[in-house]
Structure prediction request, 500 residues.
Amino acid sequence: MVEIAADPTHPRYQSLLMRHRLEEAEKKGMLAGSALIAHGRGEAYDYLLGEQSIPSAKAATKQALAHLLSAHHPVISLNGNAVALAGKELLHLADQLGCPVEINIFYRTPERMEALIGHLTQLKVEHSLDVEILGAEPDARIPGLEGPRANCVKRGIFDSDVLLVPLEDGDRCEALMAMGKTVLVIDLNPLSRTAQMASVTMVDELSRVVGNMNRILLSKERPKVSEEYLNESSLQDALNHIKDFLTKTD
Amino acid sequence: MVEIAADPTHPRYQSLLMRHRLEEAEKKGMLAGSALIAHGRGEAYDYLLGEQSIPSAKAATKQALAHLLSAHHPVISLNGNAVALAGKELLHLADQLGCPVEINIFYRTPERMEALIGHLTQLKVEHSLDVEILGAEPDARIPGLEGPRANCVKRGIFDSDVLLVPLEDGDRCEALMAMGKTVLVIDLNPLSRTAQMASVTMVDELSRVVGNMNRILLSKERPKVSEEYLNESSLQDALNHIKDFLTKTD
Prediction:
């Protein structure tokens, strides 16, 4: 059992809270076997970033939000870890954007789908959020992928023009980009294939990104898509930040 | 279920094999809740090191082995992840060194202790290894630590002069150093408190280190403790290696 500090100002509070959320999600059968290992990898990169939203990540977040706001058919794709770490906050974001969420998991089993849909539906009711939850009945396939991981919903991910996919794997990110979509990803490893391939990469921790997006929307700020935004520069900035961290703490 | 490539030359073979071993250990109740997250953190640092034993890590491994060979009372301390990832190989090492192993876990429960001792005993019998497995009946305490994590065995860890502790946490490493022991650690994060405090830090993946140690001993090489060895230099070299990796892959 993860011990959470009672005091939110405790330096490890956020990190321990995220672990606690994953533990709860595990008990509910929401996670794949590789979920905790993937989270640990994220923790290591976040440590190297100083566990903060660095300026380039904040700029990427604004750019991503601008794409979502100007989209014809935005969709938020959710996997097990995303639901576990920030399910409520992601539903708030979808509610503010007026877009659906679609559960789209790599290791798809009926039990996991049911656990994830059940959990999100409960959050939606508890917080009176007006969000459509897609994914239970896939009726389309992402071209170029094999097996159940290609499954998606026609009027959801398949027809979306702008897609927020936190924590996506490289193959699926590539296949979604090949469909001509604007793909917005959250990935703490600036060298991952997903990070390198996406339209906009937020090198930041998921719950911080979603918190930042919700705060911007609540403040009535409506960012515009910047023509000057270069994803490579954003990734390079994250790499430089990690290198500086490794140098300063020598 | 983790899929393991049938072909050991597959680039992800070792990494997937380690995940598979953890999954098996999880099923047997050998792991704490935080074990998979900790492994994921290790995976991220290993990726940044190029998933290889870098020269400074090999030098640290020789130095650690030299300390074990020249010790009066060497002991290998094992936690859940160490047993899961390289239980058999660690017993082979203890057999070659003629030293006991002691199970010493951070989150101690009777069920986990029983699962770990059962698994090690089975391996010992299967491979006809002559190794004493300590830990079931702690009769001493590591000064400066609170609660069950201070428990240890008098004629094991407590009386040891040289201690190999793969994957140790910072507090316990500090307490063991304060007892005046030579503490040899395996830690993929060169910035961790454990890595920074130990007598010899091998910034390398556990199963690779144990494999390297066993190969050296089988080759009849008997390394001598080097007076020139500087642990800070070894850590600095690992940091430089990661920085080079981040620069080359920009």
